[in-house]
Design goal:
With 584 residues, the protein is an alpha/beta fold. The chain has four domains: 74 residues, Roll (Ubiquitin-like (UB roll)); 116 residues, 2-Layer Sandwich (Alpha-Beta Plaits); 133 residues, Rossmann fold, CATH 3.40.50; 214 residues, Fe-only Hydrogenase (Larger Subunit), Chain L, domain 3 (3-Layer(aba) Sandwich), CATH 3.40.950.10. 34% of the residues lie in helices and 14% in strands. Strands 2-1-5-3-4 form a five-stranded mixed sheet, with helices on both faces. A four-stranded parallel sheet has the order 12-11-14-17, sandwiched between helices. Strands 13-20-19-18 form a four-stranded mixed sheet, with helices on one face. The mean pLDDT is 94. It binds 2 iron/2 sulfur/5 carbonyl/2 water inorganic cluster and iron/sulfur cluster. Iron/sulfur cluster (SF4) binds next to helix 4 and helix 5.
């Protein structure tokens, strides 16, 4: 520990912390724009400057280490004046059409101006950059960029993708891919993590809101919506409901109020995915037990940011991916076939909308691999944030909505589907079913949880002994099934290198593109610090643990589809509608 003085108060803090951290742990707030909790400090904006006794210049408190005996002042006239000048210089090169900006009233730059007491912009600078790059998933509006570099840090350090960085020099600096190419022309995974940390309106999802309103208002269209597991754990935050409150019932009610014709649940598709993916895993394991050549470990395929990453970075490892489409694509395929027949309407007259915590899903639905009979399985993706915009603009009082249920037949789900929304959940859901099919017994463990794989650490692993009395699985009797779970493309790289080098000890790997899973996807409400992540995870665990049915193979609405329409899991119709493959 070391002792220093901040604003005449003696404080003791651990060695190695910064002045800003020392201040924060002693309830002294230092304003900043570029600083981000839990990730490297950047020192780009300098708004956090403080006076340090003996130092000639003001110091950026986010990157200056606290030292024994240091005397710091965070709120002197010199400091306040410097912060204002820095702020006004940033504003001089910023598009200040705030009233027509998506971030109006949620913009951190606006809030900072209020905190600093800025009342006029003294410097009338030229605008250095007005480029707008609208990719399928993400729009970059460089007229609003304040060069804080949060997006660069996240893309490089958290996601390990390193797609964007400062291009050009000085006044012409632009945060962009090399040579200022569009995001759609480089190896961007469309994970959207850069949009989550952008403090202003420079990085955001490419909006699908108008297209969805248009479909809703078109009397000839049958507009069907489905919503992802993780949305229910976070959407309430947009309406002042405390983080960690499950909002499933209010969400279903809000979607009905928005006048979608049918309100379904991607959770239903998650249970269906487990039937398909579990069966696929068992087939690969059986071949492996017979000594036949088969791609193991099998790797999950439901996160489209992850799919894009493996295509760009490990294309030769594509056979390891499960052939399953993601749950919302499976649900879309069933809606436009089985459900269209049941309603007696042409699939061309349907418009399927997925509400997702993910920006990469906007790209996923446009892929040629995600079509059947010449039609897209899903027509539009709204992020959780975009759904919030629609609810607001329709004047719906979300917080006071009564609970309601999703519509049948694609609205019922088991607890296994809820946990898809956080890292480790898909694996656990698959094991709950696969283990029981092979052994005839329930997955052992605390309340159906495979404790080592549940959590938010970088790479988690578990091994489960298979003891099967069934002749069909005799080859697997006594096998130690080894599984691993990771999230965030940076962590996935570690596991995939092992696979590439041929020394991966695992049979099955779950990868999600965003660190922590969909609860902190690129389309979720923007506050995603550690505490919020845990609360969202808690909301989904609560949903799982409070359901009567918690294993996908127990979902009667999924089993009914096999009886009425699909036949067997992994059968010919399933393969046509629910599976796909990716080629180099
Ligand atoms: Fe996800 Fe999935 S879990 S990918 O994170 O497999 O986006 O929630 O919807 O499709 O179910 C996202 C979440 C989501 C799919 C499911
Ligand atoms: Fe980087 Fe993801 Fe943003 Fe692309 S979407 S620039 S990969 S953080």
């Amino acid at each position: 520990m070391l002792t220093l003085t901040i604003n005449d108060k003696q404080v003791s803090v651990p060695e190695g912390c910064t002045i800003m951290e020392a201040a924060k742990t002693n309830d002294i707030h230092i304003p900043s724009l570029c600083n981000m909790e839990g990730i490297h400090n950047i020192g780009a904006c300098r708004i956090c400057v403080v006076e340090v006794e003996g130092a000639k210049t003001l110091m950026a408190s986010c990157i200056t280490k606290a030292r024994e005996g240091m005397v710091v002042r965070t709120n002197t006239g010199r400091v306040r004046n410097a912060r204002k000048v820095l702020y006004e210089l940033m504003v001089s090169n910023h598009n200040v059409e705030c009233l027509s900006c998506k971030r109006n009233q949620s913009c951190e730059m606006q809030e900072l101006g209020r905190v600093l007491g800025v009342e006029n912009a003294r410097f009338k600078g030229a605008q250095s950059n007005k480029n707008i790059d609208a990719s399928i998933s993400i729009t970059r509006d460089m007229s609003k960029c304040v060069l804080c570099r949060r997006c660069v840090t996240v893309c490089h350090e958290r996601q390990g993708t390193g797609i964007i960085g400062p291009q050009n020099r000085g006044f012409k600096t632009e945060i962009a891919p090399p040579l200022c190419q569009p995001l759609g022309a480089v190896n961007c995974t469309f994970c959207g993590q850069c949009t989550v940390v952008c403090p202003v309106g420079a990085l955001k999802e490419t909006s699908s809101v108008d297209a969805v309103w248009e479909a809703i208002h078109d009397p000839k269209r049958c507009v069907i919506v489905q919503t992802a597991p993780a949305v229910r754990a976070a959407v309430g935050e947009l309406f002042g409901i405390p983080a960690g409150t499950p909002c499933t019932g209010k969400l279903a009610s809000a979607l009905k109020e928005l006048r979608f014709d049918h309100v379904f649940d991607t959770n239903w598709g998650a249970d269906l995915t487990i039937m398909e993916e579990g069966t696929e895993l068992l087939s690969r394991l059986k071949l492996f037990a017979k000594g036949e050549k088969v791609s193991l470990p099998m790797v999950t395929s439901c996160s489209p940011g992850w799919i894009k990453y493996i295509e760009h970075t490990f294309p030769e490892m594509l056979p390891h991916l499960s052939t399953c489409k993601s749950p919302h694509m499976m649900t879309g395929a069933i809606i436009k076939t089985y459900y269209a027949q049941r309603l007696g309407i042409a699939p061309e007259d349907m418009f399927v909308v997925s509400v997702m915590p993910c920006t990469a899903k906007k790209f996923e639905i446009t892929r040629a691999e995600m079509m059947n009979y010449g039609l897209r399985n899903v027509d539009a993706v709204l992020t959780t944030r975009e759904l919030g915009e629609m609810i607001n603009s329709a004047g719906i009082d979300f917080a006071n909505l009564p609970d309601s249920k999703f519509h049948d037949p694609l609205g019922f789900s088991t607890g296994a589907a809820d946990i898809f929304g956080f890292s480790g959940g898909v694996m656990e859901a698959a094991l709950r079913t696969a283990y029981e099919v092979i052994t005839g017994r329930e997955l052992p463990g605390d309340n159906l949880h495979v404790t080592p794989i549940i959590g938010l650490e970088d790479v988690k692993e578990a091994s489960i002994l298979i003891e099967s009395p069934l002749p069909e699985y005799a080859g697997l009797d006594g096998v130690e099934l080894k599984v691993a779970v990771t999230s965030g493309t940076k962590n996935a790289k570690t596991l995939m290198k092992q696979v590439k080098e041929g020394n991966s000890p695992y049979h099955f790997i779950e990868v999600m593109g965003c660190a922590g899973g969909c609860i902190v996807g690129g389309g979720q409400p923007r506050n995603t610090d550690g505490e919020i992540r845990e609360k969202r995870r808690g909301a989904l665990l609560w949903e799982d643990e409070h359901k009567k049915l918690r294993k996908s193979h127990e979902n009667p609405a999924v089993m009914a589809i096999y009886g009425e329409f699909l036949g067997e899991p992994n059968g010919p119709l399933s393969h046509k509608l629910l599976h796909t493959s990716y080629v180099k």
